[in-house]
Protein backbone atom coordinates (compact mmCIF):
# COMPACT_ATOMS: atom_id res chain seq x y z
CA UNK A 1 0.00 0.00 0.00
CA UNK A 2 1.46 3.35 -0.97
CA UNK A 3 1.04 6.27 1.36
CA UNK A 4 1.55 9.92 0.58
CA UNK A 5 4.45 11.21 2.69
CA UNK A 6 5.28 14.79 3.52
CA UNK A 7 8.69 15.45 5.07
CA UNK A 8 9.30 18.96 6.40
CA UNK A 9 12.93 20.07 6.31
CA UNK A 10 15.38 18.69 3.74
CA UNK A 11 18.48 18.73 5.92
CA UNK A 12 20.46 15.72 7.09
CA UNK A 13 17.42 13.88 8.45
CA UNK A 14 14.61 15.02 6.17
CA UNK A 15 16.67 14.01 3.17
CA UNK A 16 17.26 10.57 4.67
CA UNK A 17 13.61 10.05 5.61
CA UNK A 18 12.56 11.10 2.11
CA UNK A 19 15.10 8.71 0.61
CA UNK A 20 13.83 5.75 2.63
CA UNK A 21 10.14 6.53 2.03
CA UNK A 22 10.57 7.01 -1.73
CA UNK A 23 12.77 3.92 -1.90
CA UNK A 24 9.93 1.97 -0.26
CA UNK A 25 7.62 3.10 -3.06
CA UNK A 26 5.80 6.01 -1.42
CA UNK A 27 5.33 9.42 -3.07
CA UNK A 28 7.16 12.04 -1.01
CA UNK A 29 6.77 15.80 -0.85
CA UNK A 30 9.96 17.26 0.58
CA UNK A 31 9.28 20.68 2.06
CA UNK A 32 12.28 23.00 2.42
CA UNK A 33 12.20 26.75 2.96
CA UNK A 34 15.83 27.29 1.97
CA UNK A 35 15.97 27.19 -1.81
CA UNK A 36 19.66 26.21 -2.01
CA UNK A 37 19.26 23.45 0.56
CA UNK A 38 16.23 22.12 -1.27
CA UNK A 39 18.12 21.97 -4.56
CA UNK A 40 21.11 20.39 -2.84
CA UNK A 41 18.85 17.75 -1.30
CA UNK A 42 17.41 16.76 -4.69
CA UNK A 43 20.93 16.49 -6.13
CA UNK A 44 22.06 14.41 -3.18
CA UNK A 45 19.09 12.07 -3.58
CA UNK A 46 19.95 11.54 -7.24
CA UNK A 47 23.58 10.84 -6.25
CA UNK A 48 22.49 8.31 -3.66
CA UNK A 49 20.34 6.43 -6.12
CA UNK A 50 23.10 6.53 -8.73
CA UNK A 51 25.36 4.98 -6.16
CA UNK A 52 22.76 2.22 -5.70
CA UNK A 53 22.89 1.59 -9.44
CA UNK A 54 26.70 1.47 -9.45
CA UNK A 55 26.62 -1.06 -6.61
CA UNK A 56 24.11 -3.22 -8.46
CA UNK A 57 21.34 -2.69 -5.87
CA UNK A 58 19.02 -0.75 -8.16
CA UNK A 59 18.34 -0.73 -11.87
CA UNK A 60 18.58 2.56 -13.74
CA UNK A 61 14.78 2.50 -14.08
CA UNK A 62 14.26 1.95 -10.36
CA UNK A 63 16.63 4.80 -9.51
CA UNK A 64 14.75 7.10 -11.88
CA UNK A 65 11.38 6.01 -10.44
CA UNK A 66 12.60 6.69 -6.89
CA UNK A 67 13.74 10.18 -7.84
CA UNK A 68 10.46 10.88 -9.61
CA UNK A 69 8.52 10.00 -6.47
CA UNK A 70 10.10 12.96 -4.67
CA UNK A 71 8.71 16.43 -5.22
CA UNK A 72 10.38 19.47 -3.72
CA UNK A 73 8.06 22.06 -2.13
CA UNK A 74 9.01 25.51 -0.89
CA UNK A 75 6.44 25.49 1.91
CA UNK A 76 3.59 23.52 3.45
CA UNK A 77 1.16 25.86 1.70
CA UNK A 78 2.05 24.03 -1.54
CA UNK A 79 1.09 20.60 -0.16
CA UNK A 80 -2.33 19.03 -0.83
CA UNK A 81 -4.43 18.14 2.21
CA UNK A 82 -4.83 14.72 3.84
CA UNK A 83 -1.52 13.00 3.31
CA UNK A 84 -1.16 9.75 5.25
CA UNK A 85 2.05 10.77 7.01
CA UNK A 86 3.78 14.06 7.82
CA UNK A 87 7.18 13.94 9.48
CA UNK A 88 8.65 17.18 10.74
CA UNK A 89 12.49 17.32 10.57
CA UNK A 90 13.27 21.01 11.06
CA UNK A 91 15.94 22.20 13.54
CA UNK A 92 15.65 21.27 17.20
CA UNK A 93 13.93 24.43 18.41
CA UNK A 94 10.63 24.30 20.24
CA UNK A 95 9.08 27.46 18.80
CA UNK A 96 10.01 26.54 15.22
CA UNK A 97 8.78 22.97 15.56
CA UNK A 98 5.49 24.08 17.15
CA UNK A 99 4.86 26.51 14.30
CA UNK A 100 5.63 23.84 11.67
CA UNK A 101 3.50 21.21 13.42
CA UNK A 102 0.51 23.57 13.66
CA UNK A 103 0.75 24.26 9.94
CA UNK A 104 1.21 20.56 9.20
CA UNK A 105 -1.76 19.55 11.34
CA UNK A 106 -4.02 21.85 9.34
CA UNK A 107 -3.43 19.48 6.39
CA UNK A 108 -5.16 16.68 8.38
CA UNK A 109 -2.54 13.95 8.12
CA UNK A 110 -3.55 10.53 9.42
CA UNK A 111 -0.24 10.40 11.30
CA UNK A 112 1.84 13.40 12.37
CA UNK A 113 5.34 12.74 13.64
CA UNK A 114 8.29 14.74 14.87
CA UNK A 115 11.87 13.64 14.35
CA UNK A 116 12.88 15.53 17.48
CA UNK A 117 15.87 14.07 19.30
CA UNK A 118 15.08 15.42 22.71
CA UNK A 119 12.08 17.74 23.03
CA UNK A 120 9.18 16.15 24.94
CA UNK A 121 6.29 15.22 22.70
CA UNK A 122 3.87 16.76 25.23
CA UNK A 123 5.59 20.14 24.79
CA UNK A 124 5.48 19.90 21.02
CA UNK A 125 1.82 18.85 21.16
CA UNK A 126 0.74 21.98 23.02
CA UNK A 127 -1.46 23.94 20.68
CA UNK A 128 -2.30 20.98 18.43
CA UNK A 129 -5.99 20.33 18.00
CA UNK A 130 -5.51 16.59 17.37
CA UNK A 131 -2.63 15.59 19.67
CA UNK A 132 -3.95 12.02 19.62
CA UNK A 133 -2.58 11.65 16.07
CA UNK A 134 0.84 12.94 17.01
CA UNK A 135 3.92 11.06 18.25
CA UNK A 136 7.70 11.11 18.05
CA UNK A 137 9.17 9.37 15.00
CA UNK A 138 12.85 9.48 15.82
CA UNK A 139 14.92 8.23 12.89
CA UNK A 140 18.69 7.87 13.08
CA UNK A 141 21.48 9.14 10.92
CA UNK A 142 22.09 8.04 8.22
CA UNK A 143 18.46 7.03 7.90
CA UNK A 144 19.07 4.51 5.11
CA UNK A 145 21.65 2.62 7.18
CA UNK A 146 20.21 2.77 10.68
CA UNK A 147 17.60 0.18 11.58
CA UNK A 148 16.14 1.87 14.65
CA UNK A 149 12.98 3.96 14.75
CA UNK A 150 12.30 5.28 18.26
CA UNK A 151 8.57 5.89 18.58
CA UNK A 152 7.81 8.31 21.39
CA UNK A 153 4.36 8.12 22.89
CA UNK A 154 3.06 11.38 24.32
CA UNK A 155 0.41 11.58 27.03
CA UNK A 156 -2.23 12.42 24.41
CA UNK A 157 -1.03 9.98 21.71
CA UNK A 158 -3.79 7.47 20.87
CA UNK A 159 -2.96 3.76 20.91
CA UNK A 160 -4.07 3.64 17.23
CA UNK A 161 -1.41 6.25 16.44
CA UNK A 162 1.30 4.21 18.15
CA UNK A 163 0.13 1.12 16.27
CA UNK A 164 0.20 3.06 12.99
CA UNK A 165 3.74 4.24 13.76
CA UNK A 166 4.87 0.67 14.43
CA UNK A 167 3.33 -0.44 11.11
CA UNK A 168 5.01 2.48 9.36
CA UNK A 169 8.39 1.45 10.79
CA UNK A 170 7.99 -2.04 9.39
CA UNK A 171 6.92 -0.72 5.98
CA UNK A 172 10.04 1.42 5.86
CA UNK A 173 12.24 -1.52 6.87
CA UNK A 174 12.91 -0.14 10.33
CA UNK A 175 12.93 -1.87 13.70
CA UNK A 176 10.88 0.14 16.23
CA UNK A 177 11.16 0.68 19.96
CA UNK A 178 8.28 2.38 21.77
CA UNK A 179 9.37 4.68 24.58
CA UNK A 180 7.85 7.00 27.16
CA UNK A 181 7.91 10.71 26.62
CA UNK A 182 10.89 11.91 28.66
CA UNK A 183 13.45 14.48 27.41
CA UNK A 184 16.11 12.69 25.39
CA UNK A 185 13.94 9.54 25.28
CA UNK A 186 15.96 6.31 25.47
CA UNK A 187 18.66 7.18 22.95
CA UNK A 188 19.71 10.85 22.94
CA UNK A 189 19.97 11.04 26.72
CA UNK A 190 22.69 8.37 26.80
CA UNK A 191 24.36 9.21 23.50
CA UNK A 192 24.64 12.93 24.21
CA UNK A 193 25.95 12.29 27.74
CA UNK A 194 28.84 10.34 26.21
CA UNK A 195 29.46 12.94 23.50
CA UNK A 196 29.55 15.86 25.95
CA UNK A 197 32.00 14.06 28.23
CA UNK A 198 34.26 13.27 25.26
CA UNK A 199 34.28 16.98 24.36
CA UNK A 200 35.21 17.90 27.95
CA UNK A 201 38.06 15.36 27.69
CA UNK A 202 39.36 17.09 24.55
CA UNK A 203 39.23 20.42 26.40
CA UNK A 204 41.03 18.86 29.40
CA UNK A 205 43.77 17.59 27.08
CA UNK A 206 43.21 13.94 28.02
CA UNK A 207 44.01 12.80 24.48
CA UNK A 208 43.52 13.78 20.84
CA UNK A 209 40.01 13.36 19.44
CA UNK A 210 41.23 10.42 17.34
CA UNK A 211 42.59 8.61 20.38
CA UNK A 212 39.49 9.28 22.48
CA UNK A 213 37.39 7.83 19.66
CA UNK A 214 39.78 4.93 19.17
CA UNK A 215 39.53 4.10 22.87
CA UNK A 216 35.76 3.66 22.58
CA UNK A 217 35.92 1.83 19.26
CA UNK A 218 38.55 -0.68 20.34
CA UNK A 219 37.92 -0.74 24.07
CA UNK A 220 34.13 -0.73 24.09
CA UNK A 221 33.30 -2.00 20.62
CA UNK A 222 31.42 1.16 19.69
CA UNK A 223 31.05 1.25 15.90
CA UNK A 224 32.15 4.88 15.86
CA UNK A 225 33.71 7.12 18.52
CA UNK A 226 31.71 9.83 20.32
CA UNK A 227 33.59 12.73 18.68
CA UNK A 228 33.33 11.43 15.13
CA UNK A 229 29.67 10.76 15.83
CA UNK A 230 29.29 14.36 16.99
CA UNK A 231 30.82 15.45 13.67
CA UNK A 232 28.38 13.23 11.78
CA UNK A 233 25.34 14.47 13.71
CA UNK A 234 26.37 18.14 13.53
CA UNK A 235 27.81 20.09 16.46
CA UNK A 236 24.98 22.62 16.23
CA UNK A 237 22.40 19.83 16.46
CA UNK A 238 24.12 18.34 19.50
CA UNK A 239 24.38 21.79 21.13
CA UNK A 240 20.62 22.31 20.73
CA UNK A 241 19.95 18.91 22.27
CA UNK A 242 22.35 19.51 25.16
CA UNK A 243 20.54 22.75 25.97
CA UNK A 244 17.18 20.97 25.94
CA UNK A 245 18.51 18.25 28.23
CA UNK A 246 20.16 20.82 30.51
CA UNK A 247 16.81 22.54 30.96
CA UNK A 248 15.24 19.19 31.86
CA UNK A 249 17.92 17.47 33.95
CA UNK A 250 20.26 20.24 35.11
CA UNK A 251 23.89 21.04 34.62
CA UNK A 252 25.08 17.51 34.01
CA UNK A 253 23.99 18.25 30.43
CA UNK A 254 25.48 21.79 30.33
CA UNK A 255 27.17 22.18 26.93
CA UNK A 256 30.98 22.33 27.32
CA UNK A 257 32.43 25.76 26.38
CA UNK A 258 34.47 24.08 23.61
CA UNK A 259 31.26 22.91 21.90
CA UNK A 260 29.73 26.38 22.14
CA UNK A 261 32.90 27.97 20.73
CA UNK A 262 33.16 25.52 17.84
CA UNK A 263 29.53 26.10 16.83
CA UNK A 264 30.03 29.88 17.04
CA UNK A 265 33.08 29.49 14.76
CA UNK A 266 31.04 27.53 12.21
CA UNK A 267 32.86 24.26 12.89
CA UNK A 268 29.75 22.10 12.67
CA UNK A 269 31.32 18.77 11.71
CA UNK A 270 30.92 16.85 8.46
CA UNK A 271 28.40 19.27 6.96
CA UNK A 272 30.73 22.28 7.29
CA UNK A 273 33.94 20.38 6.46
CA UNK A 274 35.45 20.91 9.91
CA UNK A 275 34.60 19.70 13.39
CA UNK A 276 36.74 17.46 15.57
CA UNK A 277 38.01 16.14 12.24
CA UNK A 278 38.51 17.59 8.80
CA UNK A 279 35.99 16.44 6.15
CA UNK A 280 36.36 16.71 2.39
CA UNK A 281 33.63 15.56 0.00
CA UNK A 282 31.84 13.91 2.91
CA UNK A 283 34.85 11.79 3.84
CA UNK A 284 36.95 12.28 6.92
CA UNK A 285 40.59 12.87 6.22
CA UNK A 286 43.52 11.79 8.38
CA UNK A 287 44.26 8.43 9.99
CA UNK A 288 42.23 8.05 13.13
CA UNK A 289 40.33 5.48 15.09
CA UNK A 290 37.81 4.78 12.40
CA UNK A 291 40.17 4.39 9.48
CA UNK A 292 42.61 2.28 11.46
CA UNK A 293 40.09 0.08 13.17
CA UNK A 294 37.31 -0.23 10.62
CA UNK A 295 33.73 0.32 11.68
CA UNK A 296 33.08 -3.08 13.17
CA UNK A 297 31.12 -4.24 10.15
CA UNK A 298 32.37 -6.59 7.47
CA UNK A 299 33.93 -4.72 4.60
CA UNK A 300 35.56 -1.93 6.57
CA UNK A 301 34.79 1.68 7.33
CA UNK A 302 32.46 3.97 5.51
CA UNK A 303 31.38 7.41 6.64
CA UNK A 304 27.91 6.75 5.25
CA UNK A 305 27.36 3.50 7.04
CA UNK A 306 28.71 4.44 10.43
CA UNK A 307 26.91 6.36 13.05
CA UNK A 308 23.74 6.28 14.91
CA UNK A 309 22.70 9.53 15.88
CA UNK A 310 21.33 12.65 17.17
P1 LIG B 1 19.37 20.27 9.52
O1 LIG B 1 19.73 21.60 10.06
O2 LIG B 1 20.37 19.50 8.74
O3 LIG B 1 18.06 20.39 8.60
C1 LIG B 1 16.90 21.11 8.96
C2 LIG B 1 16.31 21.70 7.70
O4 LIG B 1 15.04 22.26 8.00
C3 LIG B 1 17.15 22.81 7.08
O5 LIG B 1 17.43 22.48 5.72
C4 LIG B 1 16.27 24.05 7.20
O6 LIG B 1 16.43 24.96 6.13
C5 LIG B 1 14.88 23.41 7.17
N1 LIG B 1 13.82 24.25 7.72
C6 LIG B 1 13.88 25.15 8.73
N2 LIG B 1 12.65 25.69 8.91
C7 LIG B 1 11.82 25.13 8.03
C8 LIG B 1 10.43 25.26 7.74
N3 LIG B 1 9.66 26.10 8.42
N4 LIG B 1 9.90 24.51 6.74
C9 LIG B 1 10.68 23.67 6.01
N5 LIG B 1 12.02 23.49 6.25
C10 LIG B 1 12.57 24.21 7.25
O7 LIG B 1 18.86 19.44 10.79
P2 LIG B 1 18.83 17.83 10.96
O8 LIG B 1 20.16 17.39 11.43
O9 LIG B 1 18.23 17.22 9.74
O10 LIG B 1 17.84 17.72 12.20
C11 LIG B 1 16.45 17.86 12.04
C12 LIG B 1 15.77 17.25 13.24
O11 LIG B 1 16.13 15.88 13.36
C13 LIG B 1 16.14 17.91 14.57
O12 LIG B 1 15.03 17.88 15.41
C14 LIG B 1 17.23 16.99 15.12
O13 LIG B 1 17.34 17.05 16.51
C15 LIG B 1 16.71 15.65 14.64
N6 LIG B 1 17.69 14.58 14.48
C16 LIG B 1 18.91 14.85 13.94
C17 LIG B 1 19.81 13.81 13.75
C18 LIG B 1 21.17 14.04 13.13
O14 LIG B 1 22.01 13.13 13.18
N7 LIG B 1 21.41 15.19 12.52
C19 LIG B 1 19.46 12.50 14.11
C20 LIG B 1 18.18 12.25 14.64
C21 LIG B 1 17.30 13.31 14.81
Automatic annotation (TrEMBL):
Pathway: Lipid metabolism; butanoate metabolism. Residues 6-181 form the 3-hydroxyacyl-CoA dehydrogenase NAD binding domain. One of its GO terms (biological process) is fatty acid beta-oxidation. Residues 184-279 form the 3-hydroxyacyl-CoA dehydrogenase C-terminal domain. Keywords: Oxidoreductase. InterPro entries: 3-OHacyl-CoA_DH (IPR022694), 3-OHacyl-CoA_DH_NAD-bd (IPR006176), 3HC_DH_C (IPR006108), 6-PGluconate_DH-like_C_sf (IPR008927), 6PGD_dom2 (IPR013328), NAD(P)-bd_dom_sf (IPR036291). Gene3D superfamilies: N-(1-d-carboxylethyl)-l-norvaline Dehydrogenase, domain 2, NAD(P)-binding Rossmann-like Domain. Residues 286-310 are annotated as: Disordered. The record marks 138 as: Important for catalytic activity. Belongs to the 3-hydroxyacyl-CoA dehydrogenase family. This is 3-hydroxyacyl-CoA dehydrogenase family protein. It comes from Micromonospora craniellae.
Amino acid sequence: MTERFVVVGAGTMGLGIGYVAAGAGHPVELVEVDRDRGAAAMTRLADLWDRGVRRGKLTVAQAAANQERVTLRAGLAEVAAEPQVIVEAVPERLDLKRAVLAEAEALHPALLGSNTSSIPIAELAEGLTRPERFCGLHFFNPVWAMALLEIVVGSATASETTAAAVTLATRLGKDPVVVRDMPGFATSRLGVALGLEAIRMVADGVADPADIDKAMVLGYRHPVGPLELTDLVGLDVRLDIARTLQAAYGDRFAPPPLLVEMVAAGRLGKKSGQGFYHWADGVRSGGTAQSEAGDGTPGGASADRTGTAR
